[in-house]
């Protein structure tokens, strides 16, 4: 672990970017003065965290990557599983977090992100008959707002929570009438954010998440009470 931390510190110190190759194993063994097994275990750990990829063959070796929320989602899932927490935990967390994200997004979201948000709303409306596209755009909409909040923690956290609480994976179905209601809520949230109204954006998001919880409580209470488990 100490060696992995040193390797990351050196990546930052050198100013390495995604796609840059790290020194070959021979040079890293000389630089860090450790055994081959220790170095490989440290590199494998960093690969699991998404910091590097290990490419085989001549010219391969460790290559710098950009970590995403995958490792965070896995860690949260395991923590919640061993705490015997139900899926309701994730839904309630979103109810507390996402109104704050929408409020910040109204103040900080760039014009490019705002255009991306509008595109998501429009795409969902055009494809209300397709649940797969609906789910993709639903996740995209909330992702854009989270990252548009200007708070990196919110961006990664909502990515992780949505990975865990994927409606199609835990059995929550969305008939077309419900998809229409969600699309309408997204349109209202977009209008509030586009108007740069923090309070209206927060309230619109709070209403949207509350409607989702009420729908899930009414139609799928057993799903919300299902214990979270790591499925890979």
TrEMBL record:
UniProt KW keywords: DNA-binding, Transcription, Transcription regulation
PANTHER family: TRANSCRIPTIONAL REGULATOR, GNTR FAMILY, UXU OPERON TRANSCRIPTIONAL REGULATOR
Keyword Transferase: no
Matching InterPro entries: GntR_C, TF_FadR/GntR_C, Tscrpt_reg_HTH_GntR, WH-like_DNA-bd_sf, WH_DNA-bd_sf
Protein name: FadR family transcriptional regulator
Organism encoding this protein: Aeromicrobium camelliae
Domain of life: Bacteria
SUPFAM superfamilies hit by this protein: GntR ligand-binding domain-like, Winged helix' DNA-binding domain
Lineage of source species: Bacteria, Bacillati, Actinomycetota, Actinomycetes, Propionibacteriales
GO molecular function: DNA binding; DNA-binding transcription factor activity
